[in-house]
Amino acid sequence: MGTADSLVDHVVIVTGGAGGIGSVIARRFAEAGARVVILENVEAKAQAGVAALPGTGHLAVVAAVDDSPTLTAAAETIALHYGRLDVLVNCAGITRPVAHDDLDGLDDDLIDAIFRVNWRGPFACVRAFKTLLAADAGGVVVNISSIAATTGLGSNVAYCASKAALNAMTMSLARVLAPAIRMVSVAPGWVEGEYAKRMDPAILDGHRSKTPLGRLAQGEDVAEAVLAVVTSLRFSTGCIIPVDGGRPLL
C-alpha cells in the first residue's frame, strides 16, 4: 500500500465507526476507495454510520467488542461477504470523568468496564480477525490510544491506565504477529469531538493555550494519521504515533 489510491476494494473495519472520531476515520477510508465495515453494538447506529459514507460496498455489522462470540460471528460475516480483510481500526472506547484524587469515585464497576472495552475489546478484535488480516500477509491494525497513556492526565486514572495497557499490547502483538500483520497505536491529545462538547469550555481553552500548535486536534487529524499508517508508513510497527500538537512539551 503506497497511496490512498491503493485502498480501492480494500476492506476496513472501524469499531465504534459511527461515533465521533470513528465516523471521521470511516469516512476518510471510504473517500480513499475502501469498503468500510462499521462495527457497532447497536444495529441502528451501525446502519446510520454506513448510510453516511460516500461510495458503495460498505457493511454494517452488529457486535460488541467486549463480547467475543459476537466478534467471531462478525469475522464469519466479513469472510462470507468480502473474503478478505485488510485493516482493523480499534476505535471503540468508553470513559467517564472522575477526578484523579477521587479514589472512591472511581468505583470497581467503572474500572472493570473501562478495561473491558478499552483493552480487552481491542485484543478480542485482533484475536477474532487475525486469520483474515494475515491471509495476504499485509494486514494492519491501528489502535486508537491517547497521550493520556504517557502523561497520566486524562478523564480518570483507569482511562489513562487502559490506554497505557493498549500501547503495551500494540508493542507485544506487533512483535508476535509480524510480518503478516503490522500494529500501530495512534495517540491523540484532546480532540474537538463529542466528548469535548460535554466539557467546561474553560478547561478546553486551557489545553489549547498549553498546546504549542495552538489548537486541539480535529477528528480529521486523527483520521489522516490512521490513513498514513496504512498507506505510507509501511515499515512501521509496534510504535505509538502522537497526534497532539506537541501538548506534552508545555
Short description:
This protein has 250 residues and is of the alpha/beta class. It is built from 9 helices and 7 strands; from the N terminus they run βαβαβαβαβααβαααβ. The chain has a 7-stranded parallel beta sheet with strand order 3-2-1-4-5-6-7, sandwiched between helices.
Topology:
Layout: E1 11-15, H1 20-31, E2 35-40, H2 43-51, E3 59-62, H3 68-81, E4 87-90, H4 108-134, E5 139-144, H5 148-151, H6 157-177, E6 181-188, H7 194-197, H8 201-209, H9 219-231, E7 240-243
Parallel strand pairs: 1-2, 1-4, 2-3, 4-5, 5-6, 6-7
Helix pairs in contact: 1-9, 3-4, 4-6
Task: Tell me about this structure.
This protein is of the alpha/beta class and 250 residues long. The chain contains nine helices and seven strands; from the N terminus they run E-H-E-H-E-H-E-H-E-H-H-E-H-H-H-E. Strands 3-2-1-4-5-6-7 form a seven-stranded parallel beta sheet, with helices on both faces. Strand 2, helix 2 (43-51) and strand 3 form a beta-alpha-beta unit. Helix 1 (20-31) crosses helix 9 and helix 3 (68-81) runs parallel beside helix 4.
Q: What characteristics describe this protein?
A:
7-stranded parallel β-sheet; Rossmann fold; 250 residues; 7 strands; 45% helix; alpha/beta; 9 helices
Q: What is the helix tally?
A: 9
Broad shape: globular
CATH level-3 fold name: Rossmann fold
What strand order characterises the main sheet?
3-2-1-4-5-6-7
Radius of gyration: 17 Å
Compute the number of structural domains: 1
Euclidean distance between termini CA atoms: 36 Å
Q: Could you name the CATH homologous superfamily?
A: NAD(P)-binding Rossmann-like Domain
* Poorly predicted tracts of residues: none
Class by SSE composition: alpha/beta
Give the SSE string. EHEHEHEHEHHEHHHE
Main pleated-sheet profile: 7 strands, parallel
Tell me the total number of β-strands.
7
Instruction: Return the CATH architecture.
Output: 3-Layer(aba) Sandwich
